[in-house]
């Protein structure tokens, strides 16, 4: 157990400091949208994203007066609280540490996005469901706690409705098996209370913004070409993989062959996990594992289908975070219940924690220094209402040389693009300036262009 305690402390340090050594600091386009909503509180101007995460960001910002540091402190708190809770409650501490050594937790908890709160709530959803399905007392208290988690999912990410649906599907599938159990009525109460909470938030959106989930502001799907459908299917299948989440942006033959190779690996991992899932029948937590697999399948497929009708990013680690969490957690619990030694899973996890850390720093930078240069310049643009990256055509390419084969390889790193970097920092320093995807504002004097900002 000592090595897991040490690993937990190392994880906290890596998660906190990693973004300092990148150019973008974990800030993406969605981060700017969340910061913008937080800056508008208590009078939000859009419901494109729900307000759960922005509210927390604003609360911490009121103390620190910096949106970047607000997101960093939230991520730190989420990470530390989960690890401490797991340790002191003796709730699968080894398994929880290994979750943090995988791709999903690593990707999510080093970024500034609502997925951090989403996975935080999901961890406690698992705890309360675990208690409800394995205990015989306080069942209604657990049901209420689960209801609050389900409501929290929806006001954190609208895709949280898929978690609610998956829980409802679980209850429906298991109806004939659990109707005589003492926990059936608590589950019905849980669905009822969370349904009222989610419905109330939708009603608030309609009354305040005129639509349910900002659907009128969402664009059409970027493309329905076969290649993108295949890439999305690969992305959904990759939710089974605990560690490998590399997905080249290129549609070249080499890129697609690499993604197909990862897909084949994912298929083997799926059957490997399935072998352990079958062992759950011998466990007193059989229903709990069924819940996790149903949740993974329903939420994953639902996100995939939703991407065919609205503009969302390609299926990847972030969008498949919930599914991967469910499947990996189920596997880890069953693995430790059926294996006498943890050498294999421990060594693999340590290797990939090091790999993920190094890979995330493959194009290193200094976010705090970049922020320090841009922040003073923003005082000159207080009257600007919009922010636009007009340097998209200025592409920075990193060249890698492989001496063994005497070949050079050029790669466009997102973190190296000056326009995106300036946009991210400017939008973080002053989220009141709304970033634009296209330069459509007629009065150009209201627009802050990234070319007006300078690095030394």
From TrEMBL:
Q: Which UniProt keywords apply?
A: Membrane, Transmembrane, Transmembrane helix
Q: Which residue ranges does UniProt annotate as crossing the membrane?
A: 7-27, 73-93, 105-127, 139-155, 187-204, 256-274, 286-309, 315-337
Q: Does the keyword Transmembrane helix apply?
A: yes
Q: Does the keyword Membrane apply?
A: yes
Instruction: Report which superkingdom the organism of origin falls in.
Output: Bacteria
Q: What is this protein called?
A: Glycosyltransferase RgtA/B/C/D-like domain-containing protein
